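This part of the workshop introduces the protein records we will be handling. The question running through the whole workshop is how a given chain folds. To make this concrete, we reproduce a full record directly below:
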Amino acid sequence: MSTRTAPAHPGLPDGPPDGRTVVRTLVSLKLRLLRNGLRRSRGRAVLYALGTVLGLLFAGGIALALAMLEHAVDSGSAGDAGVVLTGALTVGWAAIPLFLFSSDESADPTRLTMLPLRPGPLLRGSVLAALLGPGPLVSLVLLTGAALSGAGGASAAAGVIGVAGVPLAVLTVVVLSRSVAAGNARLLSSRRGKDFAIFGGLLFALLVQIANVGSQSVFGKPGTDGLDLEPLAPIASVLRWIPPVSAVDAVRTAGEGRYPLALLQLAATGALLVLLLRWWRGSLQQLMVTADASTVEVVRGVQEPGRGWRFLPDGRAGAVMQRHLRYAWREPRAKAAVFTSIGMTLVICVLSIVQGWSTVYLVAMTGMFLGLQMLNLFGMDGSAFWMVAATLLTPADARDELRGRAFALLSYAVPVTLVLAVVLAAASGDWSGLPAAVGLAFALLGSGIAIGAVLSVLAPYTMPADNNPMRNAAPGQGGLVMLNSFGSMFGSVVVASPAIGYLAWALAADAPTWPLLLAGPLYGAVIATLGLRLAAGRLLERLPEILAKAVER
C-alpha cells in the first residue's frame, strides 16, 4: 500500500521544483527581463545597444593599451597598472549594489522569498543569471588586458594560468557584487538603504574627482613616453596579494617562473570565491525563512501634530512648506534630487580648490543647481496630487501652493549658499568678492525659482512609481526632462543677465561690486514673485493635464 499523499491542490506539484528546473527558470527570467526591458521603447533598446557597444570598445581600448604598455615602460610598471585597474574594478563591483540595487530587479532576492525554492538551486541559478549582461563581458575584456600587461612575454605556463585566472577573477567579482546585494537586501530595499545610496553616490562622485586629480600625477609627469607609473608601485605591491586581484597577477608570477606562488594566488581567489558563495547562500537561507522586520508591529509614542514646525508661516503656504520639506527628507527621489544638486556644486568646488583655480564666484552655481528643485513640482507628489488638486479652487490657493514650495526650497538653499560662499572665500582668499558672489547666487536662485515654477505648470512630466532614487522620469519622458533641466539652467542665466552684466562691468571697470549684495537678492525676489504669479495664473487652467501627468504610471 502506497504511503504517498496526494498534493494539497490537484494539478500543482507536491514539493519544491527540482534544481535543474530552478536554474533554467532563473536564467530564462534574466533573459526575459533584459528582453522585455528593451521592448518597452525603441529608443531604450537603441541606447542599450549603443551603450553596450561603446562600453566594449572602450574596454577593448583600455585592454589593448595595457597589453602594449610593457613596450612603453618596464614590464614591472605595466603590471602595476594592471593590478591597480583590477583593484579598482573589484571595488566598483562591490559598490554597485549600494548605489544601483533598486534599479536592478534581478539583484533583489527578496522578490523570491514567497516561492518554495531551496537555497542550493537558487544560488546556482542566480550565479548563472548574474553572468548574463554587458557588465561581466566588459570586465572580462578589462581583466584580460590587465593580465597581459604583466605577462612579460609569451609563456605556455602564463597562458594556462591566464585562461584559468581571468575567468576566475570575473566570476569572483560578480559573486562579490551579488553577495553584497543579498547580504544587505533588506537594508538596501528600505528607505534608509535608499538614503545610503544617495549619500554613497555623492561620495563616489567626489572620490572619482579626487582620483582624477591623483591620476594627473601619474600621466602628467615627464617620464618614458610621458608616463611615470612609479607612484603605483607601493599600491600594487599590496593589491597583488589580495584576491581576486591575485588571480590576475598570477599571470605575471607564472611568467617569471614562480609557478608555486602563481598557484597560491589562484588558490587564494578560489578560497575567496568559496567564502563568498557560502555567504550568499547563507543570506538567501536567512531571507527565505526569516520574517521581515517591516511586518512586525511596532508601538511608538504619539507625537503632537505639527510639533517642530512652529517656525513656519501660518496658512496654506506654511502647510505646503512643511509637506514639501517632509518630502525632501523622507521621499528617496526628492532627497536624491536635493543632495545631487548640492553634491554637484561641492564636487566642482572641491576640484577647484585641489587644482588651485578656486574662486568665490563659483558659489553662483548653487543658485543655478538648486533652482532645479522647482522643476516638476507636482510630478513628485504622484497619485497623492489629486488631494492637493481638489483644494486648488481660487488663484489665491494656487499662489499659496507655489509660494509654500518656493519657501521650502529657500529654507535650505539660502544657508547652503552662505556657508559655501564663506568656504570658497577662505580657500581663494578673495574676501572682497564675497558680497558680489552671494548677491549673484541669490539672483540666479530667484530666476531659477521663477522659471521652475512656470515649467512645472507648462511642461510637467510623469515620475516612475517605484520610488527609485536613480530614476527621475517614466519611460518616454526624456525629452521633457531635458527641456526642464536645460531650460531652467540656461533660462536662469538669461533672466539674471542684468546682475551678471553689472558684475562683469564692475570687474572690468574696477568699480565697486558690493552693491550686488543688496541688488542681487532684491532682483531675485522680484523675479521669483513675478514667476510664481505667472505660474499660478496658468495652474488652474492646466490643472487637469498636470493631474493626469502626476497620477499616470
Remarks:
- DSSP finds 21 helices and no strands in the chain.
- The radius of gyration is 28 Å.
